[in-house]
Amino acid sequence: MTSRRDRNTLRLGVVGTAVLAAATVATLNYEALPLVGGGTTYEAEFGEAAGLAAANEVRVAGIKVGEVTDVELAEDRVLVSFRVSDAWVGNRTTAEIKIKTLLGQKYLALHPTGDAVQDPDDPIPLGRTTTPYDVTTAFEQLATTAGAIDTDQLAQSFRTLGDTFDGAEDHVRSALDGLSALSQTIASRDAELRTLLEHAHTISDTLAGSSDEFERLINDGNLLLTELDHRREAIHQLLVGTHDLAEQVSGLVADNTEQLGPTLSSLTEVTDILRRHRDDLDRTLELAGPYFRVVNNTVGSGHWLDVYLCGLVPDNRHPCQPPDRR
Questions:
Q1: Which residues pair with 57 in a beta bridge?
Q2: How many degrees, rounded to 5, is the angle at CA 227 between CA 243 and CA 211?
Q3: Residue 13's domain spans which residues?
């Protein structure tokens, strides 16, 4: 028979194993947990997947804000599900699949805009999404096209071309001489070409290191154009008002030309008189300064005048001195 202690140990082992398994599953799928993972799941419709896959990044202004959770076919379009956290998504947000690396890795770029929050139940429509031109697909199509070439027909074309130039040795020789001269010229410029290629490599490295800045510049320009589009009516009204004001001012000047002409002529005569008597006016202001200063000192004590009469009383034995006003 199993003792009670053995039964408790067995139960504790089973419970501990279950808790450990649950913790492991939760750790591997913590982003999907409602209280830990966080974020909001949205959907967007695209004309094609363009190589986008689950676990690809979701970026806003070049910053990762989430990841793609699913890519599935929905009738004649592709439905992309993605989760976003710590980012605002408006009801006019646009989505674009962009190339992340030259190896063909993609990411989903969002351009948030709008006057309300995007409803997670409503996918971003096809009219607000774009897909990039895939260079890898183009090379695959090139390989398919090259594989479909009829080599026998191509060989026959070259034989026909050779027969055509069979009687034109002089012309062919001249063409080859020209190609030889061109190759010698290029060979003589080898150092310059090497320097040019090195500088081009430096420029390409600089551009590659500044790709994020270029992307932010393009995104900021897009936001600026979007804001100008929103303010288009206000800017139109401002321009219309400025045009109307210019017309009113022009009409005012035209209506008062007869009155403004004599007034301006008289004003010119006045300025001429003042200019001719400028020295007299300067002398007058120079002499008037001390006079007004003395008058100001006389009436500066209140509602009366301060007057000092020297020698009025015979007992004044001291010489006349003005009173001390300090």
A1: 67
A2: 130
A3: 1-37
User: Does 61 lie in the same domain as 10?
Assistant: no
Q: Would you say 129 and 44 are in contact if contact means Cβ atoms under 8 Å apart?
A: yes
pLDDT along the chain (326 residues), means of 10: 59 77 66 58 87 87 88 87 88 88 82 89 89 63 68 74 66 71 74 78 71 76 81 84 84 74 79 84 80 70 62 58 53
| Domain end marker among 200, 215, 230 | 230
DSSP, res 244? H
Among 57, 61, 103, smallest CA distance to 80 is for 57
Scanning the structure block, which residue is given the tokens 């500066």?
300
d(CA 42, CA 24): 28
Q: How far is the C-alpha of 307 from the C-alpha of 323, rounded, in Å? A: 10
CA angle (134 as vertex; 130, 136 as ends), nearest 5: 160
pTM of the model: 0.35
